[in-house]
Amino acid sequence: MVYTLYEGFVLQAKRGLTTLSHILRKAEQQPNASSLPSCRLHNDMKSLSYQVFAATTQTLLVLAKLTAESLPTEDTSKDVIYTFAEMHGRIDRVLQALDAVDKDLILENCEAVTPTPLGANILPLSGITYACIMQANIFFHVTTAYGILRKEGVPLGKVDYILPFATS
Length: 168
Prior knowledge:
Blueprint (H helix, E strand, L loop, with lengths): L4 H24 L19 H19 L17 H17 L2 H7 L3 E6 L2 E6 H25 L6 H5 L6
Antiparallel strand pairs: 1-2
């Protein structure tokens, strides 16, 4: 089997978002669950809800780039607070988008270099380069969500993070 950008990004993003969904489900079972969406690792960092927002938004940005669609324009600078139902809804919608994406279309567009917003800059980036940059960012937000929940006493272990990556 040839390992392509589809396997490297789409399948890995699905696994990362599945991890995020799993750890949120464990968090919902905790006595302090109602306070968790607004919790942070540190005062100058964004909330658990924002981590879900960022991971899902960044996944959609990559999908748009890899399918030659217009990139979504959401303000990612502001913190957001969602309910658990809203967080799961966002994750589910993005997982559906990942399931629906055409593998051939991604492979067709992955090497195309186009002007791409990246932070405050617009850079000429290929789909592959953009996917690599954003995938690191997506995993950062999933890991940060895990860290927030651990800090707040949710009984999570490494297996809770890793297990979705062990599935094919």
